[in-house]
Amino acid sequence: MSFEWPWQYSFPPFFTLQPNVDTRQKQLAAWCSLALSYCRHHRLYTLDVMEAQESPVFNNKKIERKLSMEAIQVVFEELRKKGNLEWLDKNKSRCLVMWRRPEEWGKLIYQWVSKNGMNNSVFTLYELSNGDDTQGEDFHGLEEWMLLRSLQALQTDGKAEIISMDDGKGVKFF
Amino acid sequence: MHRRGVGAGAIAKKKLAEAKYKERGNVLAEDQIVQMSKQLETFKSHLEEFASKHKQEIRKNPQFRVQFQEMCATIGVDPLASGKGFWSEMLGVGDFYYELGVQIVEVCLALKHRNGGLMTLDELHQRVLKGRGKFAQDVSQDDLLRALKKLKVMGSGFGMIPVGGSYLVQSVPAELNMDHTVVLQLAEKKGFVTVSEIRESLKWEKERACHVLDHLLKEGLAWLDAQAEGDAHYWLPALFSELSSRDITPEEENQMTP
Lengths: 174, 258
Prior knowledge:
Number of helices of chain B: 10
Order of helices and strands of chain B: HHHHEHHEEHEHHEEH
Radius of gyration of chain A: 19 Å
Main location (chain A): cytoplasm
Largest interface: A-B, 37 and 26 residues
Strand order of the largest sheet of chain B: 1-3-2
Number of strands of chain B: 6
GO molecular function (chain A): protein homodimerization activity; structural molecule activity
Order of helices and strands of chain A: HEHEEHEEHEHHEE
GO biological process, one term (chain A): macroautophagy
Largest sheet of chain A: 3 strands, antiparallel
CATH superfamily of the largest domain in chain A: "Winged helix" DNA-binding domain. Chain C. Domain 1
Strand content of chain A: 15-25%
Number of helices of chain A: 6
Oligomer: heterodimer
Family (chain A): Belongs to the VPS25 family.
CATH topology of the largest domain in chain A: Arc Repressor Mutant, subunit A
Shape of chain B: elongated
GO cellular component, one term (chain A): ESCRT II complex
CATH class of the largest domain in chain A: Mainly Alpha
């Protein structure tokens, strides 16, 4: 299914940081939604800022408009404030994008475990994210850093325990 | 012969004559009233017949509605003048326009965040039709204009700005004066306007043009495009015709934010 762009994407002023405060708020909210939506559609978990500038999200070649570096940073800061983005380095050149929060991922994983009667089973992280059994599940292909955070959320909830195994980490579900 | 001209008898006679004339006058008026009542009765029953025959037609057919309205106008009747009364009760016309008014308000509110409270009549029409669904009664632009006039009368902040042969529907009481309206009309052709265009077409000073554009930005009716060639472009979402494109809905937003 191809990505559906919102009306704002074809609207040239969308790529100019708006001077009017109220309009800017609406604009940033729309940019945040668009960025998260795009990452979710393409299963992107990290973004490189330099690459982002050339990505179709922030650069609409058809209407010859693109977000300036400054504007991209503003959008990213908004995402960070909302808890959807984490910088990986001090220079703010790479970031983690959380279009779904760890708690939400945890819930999905636990639902799958319960549905298949696998409570009290042990899994390696790899089995969860890349195993045949999880093919077709939303969390299949989840990157390890996010998987770990999701399981940590479940652990806090008392629904799972992260354990150390011979060649990495695993998890036991309750 | 006695001359009785101005005697008591003459006065009495005069009085009698006057009384007879008065009586005659009353009788005449009575006659007229009875005549008129008869006519009104006939008229009313014709109307009732018309109404019952055409009530369905009026509700279903926009063209018929227009003709009906024009007919009423010719005889000096406004079927929408008051909520209650013969016309609205007999024909249910008032209900029809009231419900349409509610729909219009809903559509405008739903899109206010996007266009600042300004929308073309075309877009309003399309969206109202969409909202009514396949099996609902058809609605024409004439119907919308009448319903809007009613809304305006009720002081709900609605207004209509003539542009390019049609109208822009204003649903938020932003203060728009003649200068703003004229610039809106100029912007209608391409969906945007620039300072140079305003100066060229309207022969205004730069300050006047900037003042108007700043106001439109402030009211959320226009967005700034600084990447255009030449002058900055001021675009109006209301005139932006990408109707088929979807919006990022609040539901989707909630799914993604903590």
